[in-house]
Amino acid sequence: MSKIIAVTSGKGGTGKSSICAELGFSLAKQGHRTLIIELDFGLRCLDIMLGVKDDIVYDLGSVIEGKCDVYKATTQVKLASNLSIICAPEDPFSKVDAETIKNICTEMRKYYEYIIVDTSAGTNESVFDVVEQSDLILINTTPDPICVRDARTMSDEFYKRGNKKQRLIINKVDPDIFRADIIGDLDEIIDTVGVQLIGVIPSDPAIVISTGKGIPLPSNSNAFKAFDAISKRVKGEDVPLSFKVLLA
Ligand SMILES: Nc1ncnc2c1ncn2[C@@H]1O[C@H](COP(=O)(O)OP(=O)(O)O)[C@@H](O)[C@H]1O
Ligand SMILES: [Mg+2]
Predict the structure, then answer these.
(1) Which of 208, 209, 227 to mutate to test the pocket of ligand 1 (most atoms within 8 A of CB)?
(2) Is the pLDDT at 212 greater than 80, yes or no?
(3) DSSP secondary structure string, 8-68?
């Protein structure tokens, strides 16, 4: 049984692509065949984050243009034997229709246990096309009240369109933000978005360094621990929330 996981958010820059990369590394390390599909057109970044910048020959754009099939557009990540990527087209004006996304997902379900889809932010139609095929939507927000409200708007729209399997990731959490009197606490974020929490990721420079270098997170980093827990919860394991430790 394969699972399609759409990673999305209201605002840009909340960490969608980083979450896709780190969740991908984490699931692959646990032995699961995992594919990341980058659908944030024109803003390709996962080739760098996964350390395959110089290995990309074909991408999603090549599939859309009929230059190759979806298998040829799939690149194996060198540092993670179970992880592959289909990169976004380099052309920022490329368009993909719902039918193409659906066909790619259906085909790749045969070969991968987890398909993680990196979407663009906001109410772009392609986001809804992906989300409609997903088994799980990971809505991602930072503690910034503007991001939190936008996450709520997106989540409400997904519910309206019938997708109820949503979970919330709160990213870039820094204890100082809660002392600044702009947002109460993590519970207030969860209540405002109205989606069950699946994980909290601390603000951690290890993410910037690892994604910049295209290597997995160091196993002693707080971010690694957060992704290890999130990936296990995605698999249905009961892992206690440990954000108090992560934020200490
Ligand atoms: N938990 C985190 N701590 C510190 N920096 C982060 C964290 N998550 C993401 N970032 C950084 O934030 C920036 C935006 O992240 P990115 O994953 O590209 O967001 P998006 O895909 O939502 O636009 C990147 O520079 C990334 O390294
Ligand atoms: Mg992105």
Answers:
(1) 208
(2) yes
(3) E-SSTTSSHHHHHHHHHHHHHHTT--EEEEE--TT---HHHHTT-TTT-S--HHHHHTTSS
For 199, phi then psi, to 5°, come to: 180, 155
Q: Is the pLDDT of residue 54 over 80?
A: yes
pLDDT at 33: 98
Helix (H) or strand (E) holding 212: helix 205-213
Number of domains in the chain: 1
Could you tell me the distance, in angstroms and rounded to a whole number, from the CA of residue 43 to the centre of ligand 2?
7
Residue 46 has which token pair? 């996962």
Q: What is the pLDDT of residues 160-203, one digit of tens each?
A: 988 879 999 999 999 888 777 778 789 999 999 999 999 999 99
Q: Tell me which residue range forms the domain holding 194.
A: 3-246
Which ligand 1 atom sits closest to the C-alpha of 121? 22
Domain holding 195: CATH number?
A: 3.40.50.300
